[in-house]
């Protein structure tokens, strides 16, 4: 028999509002749940609130009102000392990358594994395989300051997925790469999804949304509409 928490939604928004300090409403009466192992795109025009929605999911922003549960826990009742435990279960790809400039490509990607105490032999294997997959096998010892925006993007993605998180949030993860690499990255995400990771990917790339045909959390004027996929597609297999 599975533990009760395994059957609870990974993300649960209930009448959530988010307002700026000036009183402007960013998100209004948001209500939806994301089940374990689901995959949703977040879509909408610039300024619709896509990044704000993700920020609440990775615990960087608190709702102004309403209830937000992550992994079955009401975040308003979780003490600040416990939040790092939740964050370790969440992988995040930021638009501005947030790499550590004093660490090499390898060490940036290895960081989540070192935090949890994985042995260096396994870290070397995992990081090497993943960097090869995203085309950075020749940049392992480079510092981020020596790399292009597209290369930094791929480091940020590799760092977010290296620990196979329970929840992966990505804000425009393909914005700095070409179409072929964008599709390759999305297939990597799909394989993580097959392994049980819940995915939420904010994007303006409608070609990718159509190609991968997953449900959308579509934001319009601060409200969320769930748009279901139109057809079922077979996805390519990707080995991690």
What does this structure look like?
By secondary structure, the chain is an alpha/beta fold. The strands form 2 sheets. It has a 6-stranded mixed sheet, sandwiched between helices. It has a 4-stranded antiparallel sheet with strand order 2-1-4-5, covered by helices on one side. Helix 3 runs parallel beside helix 5.
Keywords:
single chain; about 240 residues; alpha/beta; six-stranded mixed beta sheet; four-stranded antiparallel beta sheet; 7 helices; 10 strands; about 30% helix
Fraction of residues in helices? 25-40%
Number of strands: 10
Low-confidence stretches: 235-240
Largest beta sheet, briefly? 6 strands, mixed
Give helix and strand order, one letter per element, not per position: EEEHEEHEHHHEHEHEE
Q: What coarse outline follows from CA principal-axis ratios?
A: globular
What is the average per-residue confidence, as pLDDT, rounded to a whole number?
Answer: 90
Put simply, the count of helices is 7
End-to-end CA span:
29 Å
Radius of gyration: 18 Å
* Binned strand content: 15-25%
- Helix/strand structural class: alpha/beta
Strands in their spatial order, largest beta sheet: 6-7-8-3-9-10
Short synopsis of the structure:
This protein has 240 residues and is of the alpha/beta class. It has helices at 50-57, 83-87, 105-115, 120-133, 149-161, 179-194, 206-212; strands spanning 11-19, 25-34, 39-43, 65-70, 73-74, 90-93, 167-171, 198-202, 216-220, 223-227.
